[in-house]
Every structure is written in C-alpha cells, then in structure tokens.
Amino acid sequence: MTTTHVAASVPLPPPVARPQDAPLRQDVRWLAATLGRVVRRLAGEDTFRAVEDLRRGSRARRLGVPGAPDLDALLARTRSLPPETARLTARAFTVFFILINAAEQAHRVRRSRQDDLAAVQRGSVRWSLRRLREAGQGAEQVARALAAVNVRPVLTAHPTESARRTILDLQARLAEGLLARDGTAEPQRRAIERRLEGEVELLWLTEEVRRDRPSVMDEVSNALWYLEDRLLDAASRVHERLAQAFEDEFGCGLAPVTPLTLGSWVGGDRDGNPFVTAEITLAAARSARRAVLGHYARALADLAARLSVSERLAAVPRELLASLERDRVELPGVWEQNRRRNADEPLRLKVSFMRARVERDPPGYGSPGELERDLTLVADALAAVGAAHARHTLAEPLLAQVRTHGFHGYRLDVREDAAVHTRALHDLTAAVGMGELDGAAIRRELTGRRPLHAHHVDLAEPTDETLRVFRAMRAIQDEIGQAAASTYIVSRTRSADDLLRVLLLAREAGLVDLTREPALSRIDIVPLFETLEDLEHAPLVVGSLLDDPIWQRHLAARGRHQEVMLGYSDSAKDAGLFPSAWALYRVQEDVARACAGAGVSWTLFHGRGGTVGRGGGSPVARALTALPPGTVQGGIKITEQGEIVSQNFGLLSIAERSLELMLSGVLLHRFEDWRDALEPGEEARFRGIMDRLAADALPRYRALVYGSGDLLRLFLDTTPVRELADVRFGRPTARWERKRWRGSGRSHGSSGGPRRGSCCLDGWALVPRSRPSPASPAGSPCCAAWLTPGPSSMTSSPRWRWSVPRPTWRSPGCTCASSAATSPCSTASRRSSGSQSLHCCESGRATT
Q1: Catalytic site residue 350?
Q2: What is the DSSP track for 805-817?
Q3: d(CA 423, CA 681)
Q4: Which of 144, 248, 753, 766 could bridge 757 with an S-S bond, Cβ 3.0-4.6 Å?
Q5: Are 281 and 472 in contact (CB under 8 A)?
C-alpha cells in the first residue's frame, strides 16, 4: 500500500487536558505501565524496548519536545524492526487502544456519578420532568405523553463491529475494576490491581478477532448477551427512575407505562445477507424467548428466596390461596417438592410454581398475560399484608419487565429488498399461468381469498424462500406472540405497489385477510427510503399509500398506525452529508403532515449509522433535539449499529444512561419547539439558506465522488478494503468491488471492517465559500466540514493518508496563511467521548 504523510514541520495542535479528566489520565497511565510489565514478561525485553522507544518518541513529537524524532525517523524505526518484533509491537499498541477504551468507559460512568451527586444530571428523566413542570406542564399532560411514548433502540449486526464478545467482556471487566479502585483503601486497591493485571495478561493472550467468520447465529448470540446482561436491567432501572422522578416532581404516582422497548434486526435482516434464512429468523426469535424467560426464571428464584411471608403472621388474600389450589393440580411435582418446606409460606410457594412454568420448554404459560396475572397476585398479596415497600422494590420491577418485554425480549424486524418481492410475485403468477400483476391486479387479488400458490406446484428456490420467511413470521407469532415479529421493512421502496406486493405475499402465509369483517392483518409493512431521490419522493409514496382503499383496510386492522423508515447512511453516500441531512429533515415533516392529514398515527424509524458519514456521530440527545418539531408523535425507533452497540451498552451504567437519554429526549420533543424562540421571518430565512446550500452542495459532492473515478482509486489504494475480504468478521467485502461505485446502495461491505478502514470523505459537505481563496481559482471545490441542521455534534476525521492529489478545500473560518498544495493546515481540534478528533482543511498529498 502506497502512503504519504505530513512533513515533520507541520505543527501539531496542543493536547487538551481538562481538569475533570484527571482520573482518566491516571487510569491510562496505570494501564500503560501494567501493559508494559505484561509485555516484558510475556513477549520479552526486545519487544518491550521497541514498544517503549516508539511510545516515548511519538509522545515527544506530539508534545513538541525539542529534539523529538520526526515522523520519518519514527517510520524508519518501525521498518528496522524484525518481523516478529514488529508484529508483537503492533499488537502491544492494539491492546493499549483496547485498554484506553476501557478507561474511557469507566470515566463516562465516573463523570455520570459525579453529575448525579452535584445536581440533577442534564438529560436525565428527572431533569426533563423538572423542566416540564417548571414550564407549566401538569401531571396529567405529562402522564398522557408518557403513555404514548415508545422509544425503541434497534440492534443490528453490522460489519463495523469486529471485536469478539470475549474482548468486549474483558474490556467491561477492566472498566468495572477501574471504577472499583476509586476511593478504596490501599490493601483493597492492591488486590483489585492484581486482578486487573490478570485481565491484562488474558487480553494479551487472547486473539482480537476470530479465525473463523462468525455465523448469523453467532451474531444472534452476541445480541442476546446485550439483552440478558445489559438491556433488560438497564431498561428496568430507567423505568424505576422515571416512576420515582414523576412522583417527586408532580406529587402523584405514575400509572403503569411501557416507554422503552427493545428491537433487533439480528437474524431478520435479509437485505444483502444471504445467510439470513427463514430458519435462522425462527431460531433467532426462539433464542430470544429462551433468553428472556431465563432472565425471568432467575428473577423469580431471587424473589422466592426473599418472599418469606408466613401465613401464621399475616393473612394473605383468598385469591392467592385459590390460585395455589389450581397450581397443586396442574403441577403436582412442584407441590410435592415444596409443600413441607413452604407449607406456611404461600407467597414463596406461589413463586415456585411460577418459576417452574417459566422454565418449561415450551413455557407453561400460554402468554405473557398469564404470567403478569400471577405476578399481580403476588404484588397485591404483598400490599395486603402491609409490605408496600417490598411490593414496590421486588414485585413491581419484574411485573414492569413482563409488561414491556413479554416472552419475546427483542421485537424482531424482518427486512428485504423490494426487488425480491417483485421477482417472487412474478414467479408465483407464472407458475399458475397468470400474467404479470400490475397495481390494479394486485389490489383485486387482495380483495379476494384465492391463493396464488398451490403446495404441489414447485417454485424457484428464491421465491420459495421468500414465502418461507412469511410463514416463519406467522410461526413466531403463534409460538411467542405477535410482538415478537410483526414488522416487515421494504428496502428501496419506490411506489405504493412495492408495499402492496408484500401485503399479498403475507396473505399467502395467513398473516393477512382483508376480506374479513373486520379485516385481519398481523404485520406492519414499513417503507424504507434511502437515496436522495427516494427521500424526495417519499411524501408522494406515503400520501398515495394512505389514500389507497386497500391499504386503509390494512391500516384499520393495525390500529391506523403507519411506520416509515428513513435511511441516513445510503442517502449520505448518495448525496453527501449536507444535502442528505436537509432532505431527511424535510421528509420527516412531509411524512408526518401526510399521516396527520389522513388521521393515521405514525412512527419514524431512523436508520442512523455509527460514523458521521453514515448519519451518526452525534450524541443521541442532541440528535433528538435536532429532529423537526412535531414529527415524533410518541413512538421512535433508532438503529444501534456496529461498534456503537458496545460503546452505548457495553457497561450497565452506560446502557442505563444511553436509554435514559433517548427517553428524555423524546419526552421533551413532545412539548418543546425550537421555533418558538425565533424572530418573525427567521425560520423562512433559515429554510431558504438551507435550500440554497443543499442545492449547491449536491453537484459538487457528486462531481467529486462519482465524476472521475479518482475517489474510488484513492479508496482502493489507501484503505485495506481488499485485505478485509479475507478477514473473519462481518460480511464479505470482496463483493464490494463487483458492485458499481454508486451502484444499488448496498455497499455495506465497503466499510466492512472496523472503523480503521473507513475513508470518511463521503460525509463531507461541499458548499461554496463566501469569497474565493487567493491561492485557489474562483469556483474551485471547498469544504464546510461537519455541517448539519440543528445542534448535532459531529466528531470524526479521515483515518487514512491520501495517495493522490486532490483540490484544495478550506473550512469556514480557516485562518491558515498558506493554501499551497503541499501545506495542509488544521483549523480546529474538538473532543468527544474522551478522544481527540482533528478537523482539518487539507491540501494536496496531506494526511491527518
């Protein structure tokens, strides 16, 4: 790989050292010293010296120490190392970065705890409720809003997450150990540090990535780890905080609400992944059921150990005693096992029966409602004997979990490309001798009951597999409940017919029958608009859909609710960040307006990636604040992709904070409108400026990215995309080169490795300068990096060195004296989540 680099004379920005980050710096220093000891013991003195020389030299250069080696000297050192020493040295720095991630995770928790002690933490549910109360909102209005709120993070299996679950576990244990060190006495501190050094040894001896490519079920297992070990407990804690904060702020209790649910695409996202079959989707849903039932069983075991209420000391309600009589008949084995030990402890005995039912496979409860009724009996019995606090702290949290997560845990979405349904319907009609079905013919078929497929008629395998997916969704609903798999997302939706085809295919599996009175539909069909052209046409597609009499019958069966998904990543790749962001802003307003006009409630599903170029990069609270007012009616779905999953949910405290920020942001969005603070005419001026900037940025972006092919050559020459085809994580990347550069938008493989393989140019917004630079011709390309509507914060930077010349770009506010093709300059240094990110205007063969 050919690379170039910045000359040593280019000044580096000074390091940022905030006083509040002193504990973080202490943790990093301690971890670095510990890693040094481990490397010396396990890799030898030569490797230790090589690592130390490079570390000290790089640090001296970074700090501007006189006599420090320049970049050429540092590179010469690396080239002079023997191959084995070079490998071990590179590994040492890789492990060091993992240790830094652990230290940053610990520091996020530490700062959050400090904020909690100092005052009401900004972004917490208590902070939001207090803000609403002080603004004059009453308990009834806020409670009504909370009853309508449904915030759902949706985990996806995305190739930008390369870390093994084993590494994530190690990182989490390290972060928890660092937090445990805080404020401990010296003997305990030394014991904790010995355990931490043992974890560092294990980290050094553990492969960072798998030798074999993980299967889809491996990805399912990883998602279930987050469900069992992080998200269920984190969501429960947020729910408890919400209830307590509401009572404290408004002086009255909050009725049961379920504002947080959990979604997943893992095992259901078929678009671009041929390994996700109908059998995999069914297995993923069943695995999630086992996981959540296992969680309930452990909670019930803990409850049984605690509920030692004696009938000799307090009389329990007759309803509970009657239920025990029924349990004795239905579960005689459990009765015989526990009757002597728990004969006078009816609550403990009841919970033992409940646990036995939950642990059965299939479960002894036919539905989550049956378990909820038994839990309510236990909770009411605690209240009846005067143990109100025990009810509040022991029974109600589990009751809230069952109400929220049922037996499904994750709500599994299925996604497929619109073209797949077109081909499947064509094969079906051809197999029975029917002609091509146009829109009118599809509608006629949906008003009847004639099946299109006879089981004795053989179909092409892709078509048969498409039908099996719908049958799998019905099987999941029959076994686990409708909420387990009721959403079907149609990628690259271009017309209402794309969704009606899915409705017709779902009818073949018995999920839809619009001839009944009332109509039957067990599936939500969701259009996904991704490219700029699709986003611009989305309001027309949604409007025509809502006006369609056939679709209206379907909506009536689904509670007159429509979900619409918007793709941030593909639209950013297609049009650039600025035109994409502004188009997304406008389409949210238009879709919400169309749904409101049709008397239909709606949920907008935000398909944000992790990085800036894929629509992410902004803290979720700021991203929610930047959404158009009035577009979040109550429900919102947000994808959590790749390394962002471990970043947001890797530790229980961080998972709790991430979910709380989502809920708090959506609640405030229901009541606040940033336009109220504007002067007359200011919004119109803002929209006019945004329209002009987006219109000017689009041709500049497309000319640069798609015009000459230079960017493709740069990407292939300066990133390891070809090498990533052979790695054993994520989806295959070799297929990326077989696609057109612009292609179908299904270029997930282009960043199919970790973030270190990302070339972030596709997120740059090209806008005109107010005046030409004296060193460049008028009208030449320029860059207003990281510009987006709303107060979102974007922090990312290019990661790879440029190897081909490119035009001179300058950021707004750049004060560099020179813009010569060989003299790059930096304009700003910003800090996010404990890491530095350099925002540059670069020229020629520059690097960051």
Answers
A1: no
A2: -------TT---S
A3: 50
A4: 753
A5: yes
Own/partner pairs, 327-331, CB within 8 angstroms, 24+ separation: 327/353, 331/356, 331/357, 331/364
Contacts of 170 (CB under 8 A, 6+ apart): 98, 199, 202, 203, 206
Alpha helices in 307-359 (DSSP H): 318-330, 332-338, 346-359
* Residues of the chain scoring pLDDT < 50: 1-9, 733-848
| 552-608 tens-digit pLDDT | 999 999 999 999 999 998 899 899 999 999 999 999 999 999 999 999 999 999 998
Q: What percent of the chain has pLDDT over 70?
A: 81
User: Distances in Å between the alpha carbon of 213 and those of 7, 95, 474, 637, 725?
Assistant: 40, 22, 30, 29, 11
Question: Which residue out of 158, 295, 453, 669 is catalytically annotated?
Answer: 158
Other C-beta atoms lying within 10 Å of the C-beta of residue 550: 21
Token pair recorded at residue 381: 């019995």
Cα–Cα distance for residue pair 659/124, rounded to 1 Å: 10
Burial class (CB in 10 A: 0-12, 13-18, 19+), 180: middle
**CA dihedral sign, ordered 711, 716, 718, 720:** positive
Structure-block tokens of residue 62: 């970074």
Indicate which residue of 107, 554, 573, 606 is catalytic.
573
SS3 per-residue string spanning 598-666: CCCEEEEEEECCCCHHHCCCCCHHHHHHCCCCCCCCCEEEEEECCHHHHHHHCCHHHHHHHHHHHHHHH
Region of 433 please: left (phi>0), alpha (psi -120 to 50) or beta. Answer: left
Annotated catalytic, 158?
Answer: yes
